[in-house]
Write a structure and sequence with these properties.
The structure holds 2 protein chains of 2 kinds. Chain A starts with 9 loop residues before the first helix and ends in a 7-residue tail after the last helix. The longest helix of chain A has about 35 residues. The model of chain A has no long low-confidence stretch (mean pLDDT about 85). In chain A, about 70% of the residues lie in helices and about 0% in strands. The relative contact order of chain A is 0.14. In chain A, strand 1 and strand 2 form a beta hairpin. Chain A has one domain: MetI-like fold, CATH 1.10.3720.10. Chain A is mainly alpha-helical. By secondary structure, chain B is α+β, with helices and mostly antiparallel strands. Chain B has 8 helices and 20 strands. In chain B, the strands form 4 sheets. Chain B has a 6-stranded mixed beta sheet, sandwiched between helices. Chain B has a 5-stranded antiparallel beta sheet with strand order 13-12-11-14-20. In chain B, helix 2 crosses helix 3 and helix 3 packs across helix 4. The chains are: A mainly alpha, B alpha+beta. Chains A and B meet through helix 8 and helix 9 of A and strand 6 and helix 2 of B. Chain A: Its main location: membrane.
Chain lengths: ~290, ~350
């Protein structure tokens, strides 16, 4: 690795300053606040707070609603990460086969990524709204009692679809780049070695895509855990009941709607621990199976 | 074991014909080298035989069976790629066994074949390494091994040595030659390197702009090149070729020098080709080509003199004995020994 030596001591810090400032103000300071508040209890008027140790954590972890949110999160995240990645990979492989208009298709595929989460949520909400949704009517014609406002599973399907749809673009981009980095001659060699297209995909292409896939697994997990707040907020607001209330949504609900700051902060801290543990796990165990070229 | 028959093979890219009808028969066990400058279509031709490129017209037969519409895997061929195309995530052993596993060969036989190929190519210590931990020459041998274990009807090699350094290239060249002799397999080998072409081939296909200019043994190609292109392409330093006017059995050279030569055609303009080694220094009173040397490269065993035909701007290269005392600025008179001249039509470039 080449080391760049700056002649001046101050210059590197100056260059880093904007990024450091953003990180400190928007990441470390709120995180520190969350830690502080997670061990405090505020009075009903928010005028004073008292130190309560780990009481908030104990309360949160014994709350059935919290365990429900954890379960919802697991289901939601697994579904979103799985579908967003498999569909994106499928599309990326298909786009490779297009002879004419490849660039056009790629551009179209990338568009959803530019849509803000709340807008994406609204799009899906409008399409599938039981009373005026364009696609709700055909669903009902097919004999499906479509009503995500009442049916928790249907509501889950809807938010999963919206969240997946938005993330496919991002995954698609990385998979396309990953596929392009695989030398054509490897596939030709495989063809001559007698591999069918399908066999070559699973024995050559897929293993060589593992760095991309692993990276996307980490990114998608984090996305499903955190960045889908806007979609859930716009589409179901965690309902019906608590059937689509994820951990992040519950943090928001308890903190900013119900104003139970202590509980909310404790949940944030737990969430942070979960994400750190998950990422560490992915790096520790899954990365071993990744082949970096 | 296979014979290969190419019949008026053509290839179009977007309406542009790049291979203009190549016909040839490759006998079982023959080593055929396709040689030509870059962009002449030699790799395309090989890839058509492999089944990696479509065939626009004509047929390819392998073992008397038309394979035009067969997938590469159905053609019973193996190929060695220029960049080796080793599977980077597999060990050397897995790379070699890949095709056999697909063919559902019993594991014991796979192991035995891999071991045999590894022994032949001296790859035993590296069987469990990944390709990135190997040197260029070792990778090249793995690529050969992967082709070898399949025991195909024919081997196709696409510039397999061009990514190696000069010394290794000579070594691998000999190894490939040995391999051909021990296995006796049909080999079709693409290269732009004329040394590889001359030393390896039983027969050469010299290609230029999608046309097979000559299909013959290396000896024939060198001694009686079929066209001016072949004459200029094969041989190093290149053959001297210039335009002469034939007048009553005498060639009028550039600069107006008159050189009586045996075997000249009737009066017309022709292209005269003389190899650098086919130039004997003659006395001043003998008819010859006067050459003014511009520089002399001494190589030990022999030397190359680069000069101009006196009174003209036509460059000429001479091979001189290593003991030569010739130096820059010197004037030499040279003449070809009888029967060592090549004549080509000035319009078509074909041998006369």
């Amino acid at each position: 690795m080449r080391r760049t030596v700056f002649p001046h001591k101050l210059l590197p810090w100056l260059l880093l300053a904007p990024q450091l400032a953003i990180t400190l103000i928007f990441f470390y300071w709120p995180a520190a606040q969350a830690f502080r508040q997670s061990v405090l209890r505020e009075d009903p008027f928010g005028l004073s707070s008292t130190f309560v140790g780990l009481a908030n954590f104990r309360k949160v972890l014994n709350d059935p609603a919290y365990l429900n949110a954890a379960q919802v999160t697991v289901v939601f995240s697994l579904l979103v990460a799985f579908f967003a990645m498999t569909i994106a990979l499928f599309l990326a492989v298909q786009v490779e086969k297009i002879v004419r208009g490849k660039g056009f298709y790629r551009t179209l595929m990338i568009w959803p990524y530019a849509v803000a989460p709340a807008i994406a949520g609204m799009l899906w909400l409008f399409m599938f709204n039981p009373s005026f949704g364009t696609l709700a009517w055909p669903l009902r014609q097919l004999g499906i009692a479509w009503n995500p406002l009442l049916d928790g599973e249907q509501a889950m399907a809807l938010v999963v679809a919206a969240a997946t749809w938005k993330q496919i673009s991002y995954n698609f981009l990385f998979f396309v780049a990953g596929l392009q980095a695989i030398p054509k001659s490897l596939l030709e060699a495989a063809a001559i070695d007698g591999a069918s297209r399908r066999h070559a995909f699973w024995t050559i292409v897929f293993p060589l895509l593992t760095p991309t896939t692993f990276f996307l697994l980490v990114v998608n997990t984090v996305y499903a855990l955190f960045d889908t707040f806007g979609i859930i907020h716009a589409v179901t607001s965690g309902g019906p009941g608590r059937s689509t209330e994820t951990l992040v949504y519950k943090v928001y609900n308890d903190g900013f709607v119900n104003l139970i700051m202590g509980d909310s902060a404790a949940q944030s801290v737990i969430l942070m621990v979960i994400v750190i543990a998950l990422t560490a796990f992915q790096f520790r165990f899954i990365e071993k199976r990744v082949h970096y070229g | 074991m296979a014979n290969i028959f190419l019949n008026d093979l053509r290839k179009n890219y977007a309406g542009q014909e790049v291979i203009h009808g190549i016909t040839m028969t490759i006998a079982d066990g023959e080593f055929v080298v396709i040689v030509g400058p870059s962009g002449c279509g030699k790799s395309t031709l090989l890839r058509m035989v492999a089944g990696l490129e479509g065939i626009s017209a004509g047929t390819i037969e392998i073992n008397d069976k038309v394979v035009n519409d067969l997938e590469p895997r159905q053609r019973d061929i193996a190929m060695v790629f220029q960049n080796y195309a080793l599977y980077p995530h597999m060990s050397v052993r897995e790379n070699m066994a890949y095709g056999l596993k697909i063919a559902k060969m019993p594991k014991a036989e796979i192991d035995q074949r891999v071991a045999k190929a590894a022994a032949m190519l001296e790859l035993e210590p590296y069987l469990d390494r990944k390709p990135r931990a190997l040197s260029g020459g070792q990778r090249q041998r793995v690529a050969m091994g992967r082709a070898l274990v399949r025991e195909p009807s024919a081997f196709l090699l696409d510039e397999p040595l061009s990514n190696l350094d000069a010394k290794l290239r000579v070594q691998m060249r000999l190894q490939i030659k040995d391999l051909h002799q021990t296995t006796g397999q049909t080999m079709l080998y693409v290269t732009h390197d004329q040394v590889e072409a001359m030393t390896l081939a039983d027969r050469l296909i010299v290609m230029n702009k999608g046309v097979a200019e000559q299909i013959a043994t290396p000896h024939e190609v060198y001694m009686t090149p079929a066209s001016e292109f072949v004459a200029g392409f094969i041989g190093s330093p290149a053959m001297n070729i210039f335009t002469v006017q034939v007048e009553a059995g005498v060639a009028v050279l550039p600069g107006g020098h008159r050189l009586p030569l045996a075997g000249l055609p009737a009066d017309r303009e022709v292209r005269l080709g003389l190899r650098p080694e086919d130039m004997e220094i003659v006395g001043d009173d003998t008819p010859g080509i006067p050459v003014v040397l511009r520089s002399v490269e001494w190589l030990g065993a022999d030397a190359f003199g680069y000069g101009m035909i006196e009174g003209s701007d036509v460059a000429i290269t001479l091979r001189l004995p290593g003991s030569t005392a010739a130096a820059r600025g010197q004037r030499l008179r040279v003449a070809p020994p009888e029967g060592r001249l090549h004549l080509f039509a000035s319009d078509t470039g074909k041998r006369l």
